[in-house]
Amino acid sequence: MMSKQSTVTEKEDCHHVPVLDGNRHRVLSESDYTEHQYRMLLRKIDRYLLPLMWVAYGVQQVDKTGLSTQAVFGIREDTHLVGQQFSWLSTIFYLSYMVCEFPSSYVMQRVSVGKTLSVLMFFWGIIVLSTGFARNFATLMTLRFLQGAFECTISPSFLLIIATWYKTREHTLRAIIWGTANAGFGIITNLCLYAIGNHALKNGGLAPWKGISFFLGTITIVLSIFSWFLLGTPREVSWVSPEERRIAQARVVNNRTGTDAHKRREWKRDQIIEAFIDPSTWFLFFSVVLTSLPNGGVTSFGNLVYKSFGFTSLETILYNIPRDAASIIWFLLAGWASSRYPNIRFSLMLFAILPGFVGMLTMALLPNDPRYRWIRFGMYFMTMSVNINGLLLWIFVPSNIAGRTKKSIVSSILFVGYCAGNAAGSQFFQEKDAPRYVPAIIACAICFALQFCSILAWRLYLVYQNHIRDRALMAEGLTREQAKEIGAKLAEEDMTDRKNPYFRYTY
After folding, report:
1. CA-to-CA distance for 128 and 121, rounded, in angstroms?
2. Domains of the chain in sequence order
3. N or C: where does the chain have the smaller number of CB atoms within 10 Å of the terminal CB?
4. Distance (Å, rounded) from C-alpha 366 to C-alpha 339?
């Protein structure tokens, strides 16, 4: 039943979807503002958020995976790592990531998304910089544990920011734009790291892996200052006026996942339970695990795999650049396709797995012969296509999950899968299998095949759920626009996607 307040200003316009404005104590709707106002605000949002999110996401990626580059520049030898100790530096990072994710999500919901992220970013920058002073395995393990604890907030905070600023159809393209930072910022830093490594190898002095730590840590600290002033939800940032804040809230009401108009501090038990019993949560979880297992190994051992082809330490950095450049192009093509064609994300993920599977399997099965070096390079190059799946899976949280508490819980569950997969994936690569790591690469190929099956089954489930709801809608005699309007009202009451019969899943 609709509340009395919801019906006071209701109009016949099919785009009129009310949301309570906490500042003026009145009802906002999408029809309160013109398309020109929405376009102007969207440009401003993109101008402030996208460059900062791009750099921030790129920085966290290179901070996290910089260990792979440091490995070919002597960090293992200088800190006296033996056996599986290098693998454990990745595993401990993701275990810490997992343990600290739940309290971090709680703090973000209780305090501030942007401010929480910027403070933690400052501290992880200090940790990355301090890595350059490490002398042994124990020190590195401690620093990596702390880095994981501070770095775990960036992806869930970005998902919340996207959900509160952008419409559902805008989620994929925007997320993919900042997702290209993994490769784009990687190209920039690889060139800088090449210069650092080249200078150190030619002129001596500071070990190149130490210079890499000082360089990456300094960038992160500087970025945290910008994030403090610019990053956050519409309710948190100061670069929008009160009127622009209301426009931002009004433009996303049709997402039917709730806006940022109210600061919802309470945790709802029924939404926690629903998050755990929803089949979509577990389809997402297993898909993320199967994506993360190969990722955990490749991000730590990727440069060592390159080196096994017969390249030098400096060449491994340069030959990563074409792979990163191709990844950017693929990300942008996927973003363009998802914004132009509805319900294409699952098809993109399924397609992306195929070259990754073929590349991994062929690379493992080819003989260890210098004549096949460039073929193996090409096979490894092909695996970049599957990188997009991790990001596309996460975008389903703001697009397909409604209810503030449920979103937080599902995000945390997915991070458990993400961290567990990455932590275990680095252990695929055993010292006894060096330098080619054939068993580990075959295991990665198997994960891609299982991921294909999981994503396909999940898509069929969502199509079936939408079909059931459409049939119920026809039985009620409501039009799609009427259902869309009612669904948005229910979402503003913090109703979840499963309880809201007018919610429709994207796929």
Report:
1. 11
2. 32-237+269-492 (1.20.1250.20)
3. N
4. 39
